[in-house]
Design a protein that fits this description.
The protein is mostly helical. The protein is built from 1 helix and no strands.
């Protein structure tokens, strides 16, 4: 009889990196884009520049 409690990955553990699927975990890239946008927005507003392109 199979013990279903031992099958499958342990909770909180993600799959290892697989070069066949490089776009699966983009959390780091999304976070960096978020930070870059807000740094740029802050720098541009202190200079008094218009932000019409960044907000589209």
């Amino acid at each position: 009889e199979l013990n279903h409690s031992t099958t499958g990955p342990a909770p909180g553990i993600t799959a290892a990196f697989d070069s066949h699927f490089p776009n699966q975990n983009q959390t780091r890239n999304c976070w960096q884009d978020y930070l870059d946008f807000h740094r740029c927005e802050k720098a541009m507003t202190t200079k008094g520049a218009l932000l019409t392109l960044a907000k589209k």
